[in-house]
Amino acid sequence: MSNISEISKELGHRVIICAGTGCVANGSLEVYKAFQDEMTKAGLHLIDTPDHRTPLDGDQQGLHLTKSGCQGFCQMGPLVTILPQNILYCKVQAADVPEIVAETLVKGNILEKYLYLDKSTGKHCHGTDDIPFYTRQKRTVLANCGLIDPESLPEYLKENGYAAARKAFCDMTPAEVCKQMLESGLRGRGGGGFPTGRKWEMARIQPGPKKFVICNGDEGDPGAFMDRSLMEGNPHCVIEGLMIAARAIGADEGYFYVRTEYPLAVKRLRKAVEDAMAKGILGKNIFGTEHCLTLHVMEGAGAFVCGEETALIASIEGKRGMPTPKPPFPAQSGLWGKPTIINNVETLATIPLIIRDGVAAFRADGTEQAPGTKTFALTGHVLNTGLIEVPMGTTLRHVVDNVGGGVTHDNGEPGGTFKAVQIGGPSGGCLTAEMLDTPLDYESLRKVGAMVGSGGLVVMNDHTCMVRIAHFFMQFTQNESCGKCVLCREGTKQMLALLDDIIEGNATAETLTLLEDLAHAVSVGSLCALGKTAPSPVLSTLKYFRDEYEAHVFHKTCPAKQCKNLLKPTIDAKKCVGCGACARKCPVGAISGERKKPHVINEALCIKCGACAEACKFNAVI
User: Fold this and answer.
1) Which of 24, 142, 11 is nearest to 82 (CA)?
2) Are strands 212-217 and 253-259 parallel, antiparallel or unpaired?
3) Neighbouring C-beta atoms of residue 436, cutoff 10 Å
4) In this structure, are strands 63-68 and 46-47 parallel, antiparallel, or unpaired?
């Protein structure tokens, strides 16, 4: 269990409305407004609202009504947390607020119907201390997310905010900062897991007075929202991480590069930078030293390729976002030819914890080669979807079954059968049921042909067509290819065309051979990581689910019954009245059955002409 409970005690009496993107989309801002109105009507001493903000004071009496970033349990949003009782109400709507105010805030009664129901035990859970989704995690980087007000600098400062940056600027040399990062073993949380300390040291030793630091907030993987939630929920911790990075290499200027599809993250980051500047935390003479640091927030145009370092740099410089060969590496020659380090959001959010609490505390979690924790976006056919954080090396089984609550059926009900997990987005690969005990760390995943990547986990049940999954990710990467190198530009296009042939029933044995050969060629010959990893979903599904590909190609059937062109009609026995109209219209005699009894279709004879469906007046042919 994380230190969520300890932080909760320090925040006093308050009602926290989740205002992460997911909950906002489900109406949490209306819930917030309803709480404002109802708490005022009830005569409660309401403080710390956006309209009547007062300095945070632990001795102040009354109820604080605040917004937070993502509280993680996205499946149950909008979420309302009530402290210090640590009550978590789920799926709250504005219409529910009068009852909550009257019963819980005024009378102190807990309303069971808004509590989370643990379907495995049949019991209602009071809050984060007894909800399995939370208790089976280790939330350190995310500890403040969902609790503190992301737009309040005083709240961040109260939680030891910027203490690590002060230590780095006032008590440590750049070499000492780099040394502590090296000793921590922190590896980049945005892709291949390169050691952060090594990257920083490479930039630190470069000559010249001008260097840059960049936060890569261009999170583009389908199903990934870890960085988004950190920027929305605790922007000051990301700023603090970038400040420490600047101190480590001697940079006096930096950029937050955030995809334009994240408007709330951009808004909160900009406000956080402005507040830090006004407080003297950023700008000139940081913490009374001679050091200066200016930070800019820049919106990217949403190009997936700009997640690659050199393409991102080109975009900041005003050029088309296209990768360039390495070396030189950005740490040697990056933004406008100056030494530059680029770290993703989660990496930067981890750094203040290491500087503040020490290497030993950080290495207490995770594995020897991959210490610390990792955030994941858990989505798909799993009971509890949301933003999670677990120690590196945690098994996939623990994440899916224990944190996620198990696999669901297509209708969202528990009890589904696990088929696969796509990890690492379009650059990653599939993990099968035989790999459920695989530790989620860099080396273990690399051995099975997958990667941690940014941390997207898409769970799939046995009704999922793996050919269509490969097609989805190939379509994404083909659309996102910058077109600079031929193998990526044309290779992904041709791979997508081959996958089209397979799911449409037009493929032959040669199609499979050509698809596999082309995938290997694109992987070897592409310039940047986008092209090199684009074939990964295809190669991994071909490796572990080749029988599904062969069923599509040789038998013209989709085992999961998801590819429409390969589906043959069936008759719903509950709807069929046995009138015989379908059998009379069938040109090949594929339908049989007794009068007034359900009929059946012989799939071997069926030519999918659709005559039976047109003839049926009871919609029994599906």
Assistant:
1) 11
2) parallel
3) 16
4) parallel
Q: How far is 63 from 51, CA to CA, in rounded Å?
A: 15
Mean pLDDT is lowest, of 78-82, 220-224, 440-444, for 220-224
Contact 258, 266 (CB under 8 A): yes
Which of residues 475 and 8 earns the better pLDDT score?
475
φ/ψ of residue 552, rounded to 5: -65, -40
- Strands 600-601 and 418-423 turn out to be unpaired
C-alpha distance from residue 325 to each of 311, 339, 481 (Å):
10, 16, 16
Strands in 294-300's sheet, in edge-to-edge order, are 294-300, 253-259, 212-217, 340-344
Q: Which two tokens stand for residue 528?
A: 């940047």
CA–CA separation, 121 and 35 (whole Å) = 32
Name the token pair of 4: 């969520």
pLDDT band at 11 (very low <50, low <70, confident <90, very high): low
Helix (H) or strand (E) holding 264: helix 263-279
Q: Cα separations (Å) of 128 from 21, 72, 281?
A: 20, 11, 33
Mean pLDDT value of segment 399-409? 95
> Environment class of residue 171 by beta-carbon count within 10 Å: exposed (0-12), middle (13-18) or buried (19+)?
exposed
Cβ neighbourhood burial of 607 (10 Å; 0-12, 13-18, 19+): exposed
Alpha-carbon distance 374 to 442, whole Å? 11
d(CA 350, CA 360): 14
Q: How confident is the model at residue 60 (pLDDT cuts 50, 70, 90)?
A: very low
pLDDT in tens, 409-447: 988 889 999 999 999 888 888 999 999 999 999 999 988
Higher model confidence: residue 11 or residue 499?
Answer: 499
Between 290 and 47, whose confidence is greater? 290
Instruction: Give backbone dihedrals phi and psi of 396, rounded to 5 degrees, phi first.
Output: -60, -35
Question: What residues does 15 pair with on adjacent strands?
Answer: 65, 82
Q: Measure the CA–CA gap between 621 and 351, rounded to whole angstroms.
A: 60
pLDDT at 5 over 70: no
Cis previous bond, 328, omega within 30: yes
Count the alpha carbons within 13 Å of 389 in the hemisphere toward its beta carbon: 27
Give the residue among 336, 288, 337, 343 at the shortest CA–CA distance from 316.
336
How far apart CA 196 and CA 157 sit, in angstroms, is 26
